[in-house]
Amino acid sequence: MNRKMLGGLALTLGVAMVLGGCSSQRKNGKTNQKVLRIGVSSYDQYDTFVSELISCFQNYAKEKEKEWEITISLDIRYAQRSQMVQNSQMDDFIDDQVDIACINLVDRTDASGIIEKARKSQTPVIFFNRELVEEDLDRWDELYYVGADAYESGRLQGKILVEECRKNFNKIDKNKDGVLQYVMLEGEAGHNDSLARSMAVIEEITESGYMVEKLADEIANWNRDQAATKMQTFLDTYGEEIEVILANNDDMALGAVDVLTEAGLKPGDTDWPVILGIDGTSVGLEVVKKGEFLGTVLNDGEGQAYAMLELAYALVTENELPEKYQLKDGKYIRLPYREITAEDL
């Protein structure tokens, strides 16, 4: 039912009959949904992983229109890394009477504006990919999260390196000091995924018995160009000392590849360091195949897109979720990560 016309059942039905403004009718407590209106806001249009996820979401919506025998209307917007812009987009979604909003937060610590707007208008929200603070998710019953466990991705990134060290440690340890000298390219300051991935990867390596030395780490905001700028500084400062490059996502790892390639290095050269990404984007998988990355960690964007649409449909129509997408604690759908190396490809 249109969530903005709750002044009374008779008035709501009257407006729906005259204006056709409602996207559904309720019969015996269920929703006979004809149109599913979804507003989607992403923090940034240049994030490769999120862009691929949204593309999957669009494709899946086209498939499900036939199966569910409804029209799925998507209003997809990009917030240009501004929480104020995203808050304004939420206002637009509410004015446009969407049934549900899917929000990829700009600032995970500043979800209050979105939440208050959602609660006041009775518009459910599925947050995705960029996990908000747990206490914020508990502020209203109709707030949900679809994503993955960022800590797990860091552990798996470390596991790929550990497995390679067990086979080729002498090759990786170029200066033969028994220590892995590394640089790290991090996502955003204070971002949950950045913090968890950066901590977990080092924990996995050291708990597996290998010693590490951090030469440098820098924030590159998930961005390939920013990462290239940081990597150039790393290379100018440390040069051949760099044995391992750890990046919080594939785009930043690709920035490192750009700089190394520009410097005339090639995979297989003794000076080419081990490079690891996270996300398993299409371009990230290509460089794994070419040998420029040792590996990446697949973040199941396709699965998250499917889960997000299934959850949206179930919430609006009051149908059951498919078993594989059951909510944890009534709030969370988390999909597992997977290690990807050239052998897996």
UniProtKB/TrEMBL annotation:
Keywords: Calcium, Metal-binding, Periplasm, Signal, Sugar transport, Transport. It comes from Jingyaoa shaoxingensis. It comes from the Bacteria. PANTHER family: D-GALACTOSE_METHYL-GALACTOSIDE BINDING PERIPLASMIC PROTEIN MGLB, D-XYLOSE-BINDING PERIPLASMIC PROTEIN. It is found in: Cell envelope. This is D-galactose/methyl-galactoside binding periplasmic protein MglB. Residues 38-317 form the Periplasmic binding protein domain. PROSITE patterns: PROKAR_LIPOPROTEIN (PS51257). The ABC transporter complex is composed of one ATP-binding protein (MglA), two transmembrane proteins (MglC) and a solute-binding protein (MglB).
